Model the fold of this input.
Amino acid sequence: MDVERYMERVEQYTLGTMPPAERAAFEAELATNTELRDTLDLYRLGQEVIEQGVEASLRSKMQGWAAAETAAPPMTVSRVNLRPMWIRLAAAASVVLVLGWFSVQWSSRNYSNEALFAGQYATPEASTFRSGTAMENPLEPGFIALEDKQWKAAEDFFKKFSPDQERYAEAQYYLGHAALQLGHYDLAKDAFQSCIRKNEVKFSEKAQWNLLLTYVAAGETDDADFRQLLDAIRNDQGHSYQREAQALYGKLGSFWRRIAE
Amino acid sequence: MKKPDFTDEQLVAAISAGGQARETALKAIYDDGDLKRMVAAFVRNHQGNATDGQDMFHEGMIVLDRNIREGKFRGEAPVKGYLYSICRFLWMNQLRKQAHTSSVAEVPIAHEPDHLTPEIALMTEERKGVLNRLLKELGERCQQILELWKLSYSMEEIAETLGFSSPDMARKAKYRCHVSLLEIIRNNPHVEQLLSR
Done:
């Protein structure tokens, strides 16, 4: 079946942009042309697949909104309405102190290593690694452990994979996540690096980004390797995490970050 | 800065239009603290905790967004009332599923007035898993392009957001990604199973 041959017409038909006369002809052809019908079925399934991505993005966005809500500081300042100058000055000084205190609290809540990590890190969602053929999947026990948040069991499982095994890169990627959750930062770094070295398109960029976040969680943002990787990602226009890396870079160099430190 | 106030018609129009307007409208709904508290209270009163409440609110938002974009929300109830009904439905459904697999007491079906009954297509976890795997095979860049396209972002906006040199380059990339996706689906051994449901 040549998908490209029918792609344009199928898209017009599905999106409702096909002129009525052509639409009628298209529907008549559907009755006799198996390839056209198959392409239409594929296209519809493709729309469902894309919708899964749209949902995942919105879910992730809402998690960010929820995190921002939790982190937002109460910025209320009491009114000063006292006549003598020294009282006004004292009140002003108090306000400055209160604001200063809030600033320190706010910056440490939003710009500390913990906050930067929590704001950027996403646990791999179960739905992204489970499949209909789960029982045939060699990584399945590890996935079940991850899904149940049994990080130690997941770490132990994925650690057993050797480089010559099939799906080693994927196992290393998930090992990195399990170790990261357990605070085993050195192991997490090793695992993400092993995954990166395998250079598999599906995992390489994600592993690079999570390696960066591991450094953040470990409080090693001054490490030369971290800086080098951060620069490489934020300057790579084609990298899937370029925008995230730029935002992280901006936060690491910000005034608030210095206060948080 | 004061947040924009939207009427229900404006919310629906913005979400249907897609692009940045959709995101602004969704954020406006999301920021309704009373609604979130209502959902959280409902979940808490039905064997859930605060995290469950937030999860249900998020899942409800996802269904609301999709139903509006697909024209399934017909404006017969206020948007926020409709969202609340969705969240209730999803939570009760989850409890019912748990009741079948554990010792949790059987959960009665919540009765809603007809006009508030949300149209919710519940997908099996298995199907969702296969669809997600297909998506992951596509690669992050193509996923981003196709998601923006699905959300009615213009080629100009896609080019700007994803750093293409021109809308035409974005259009070509979208075409390539779309064809790749269909090829990935076609070559997947489980597609017959998906198509037959």
